[in-house]
Amino acid sequence: MNITMPTLSSIEMTRTNQAHVGTAKLTSLIPGQNGENQVQNQKSFGTFESYLVNAVSEMNNQQLDVNRVQEKLITDPDSVDIHDVTTAMAKAQMSLSLAQTVIDRLITGWNELSTNR
User: Fold this and answer.
1) How far apart are CA 84 and CA 92, in angstroms?
2) Calpha distance 10→28 (Å, rounded)
3) How many Cα atoms sit within 13 Å of 22 on the Cβ side?
4) pTM
5) Chain-wide mean pLDDT for the chain?
6) Measured between alpha carbons, how far is 14 from 56 in angstroms, rounded to an integer?
7) Residue 43 CB coordination number (10 Å)
8) Using alpha carbons only, what angle is made at residue 44 by residues 56 and 96, rounded to the nearest 5 degrees?
9) Is the CB of residue 32 less than 8 Å from the CB of residue 40?
10) HSE on the CB side for 114, CA within 13 Å?
11) CA 35, CA 29: separation in Å to the nearest integer?
12) How far is 106 from 27, CA to CA, in rounded Å?
């Protein structure tokens, strides 16, 4: 079953604020349909996917840092300050909590879009 998506160039927009009136024509973001330049420009600024992957990678690195500091605390307690362990654990917990919040909001937003509210 093939579903075709309408292109943005066929959508008429009603602008209610005079500041939002522009002269540029809406173009499609689907490659091969007058939107290739916009898609390439988006990639040069970074995509949402790249930001998300970088954030998850950073969160993972913080979790791994906590594990390393905890192992070092167990094997050589004199070389590690307990405050460093506590700080690393707090940073890792905060980044994990932020990631969970972002995921929850993304899912909520997707559910709202899919039910056409």
Assistant:
1) 12
2) 9
3) 5
4) 0.53
5) 75
6) 39
7) 10
8) 10
9) no
10) 6
11) 5
12) 26
Mind spelling out the 3-state secondary structure of the chain? CCCCCCCHHHCCCCCCCHHHCCCCCCCCCCCCCCCHHHHHHHHHHCCHHHHHHHHHHHHHHHHHHHHHHHHHHHHCHHHCCHHHHHHHHHHHHHHHHHHHHHHHHHHHHHHHHHCCC
Residue 106, token pair as written in the block: 């993304």
> What does the pLDDT look like over 26-64, one tens digit per residue?
554 455 555 455 555 544 567 888 888 898 899 999 999
Q: Largest Cα–Cα distance of the chain, in whole Å?
A: 69
Report which residue type is found at 63. Q
Q: Which residues of 29-40 are buried (b: 16+ CB within 10 A; e: fewer)?
A: eeeeebbeeeee
| Tokens encoding 67 | 């594990």
Residue predicted with more confidence, 6 or 53: 53
Tokens of 32: 């091969």
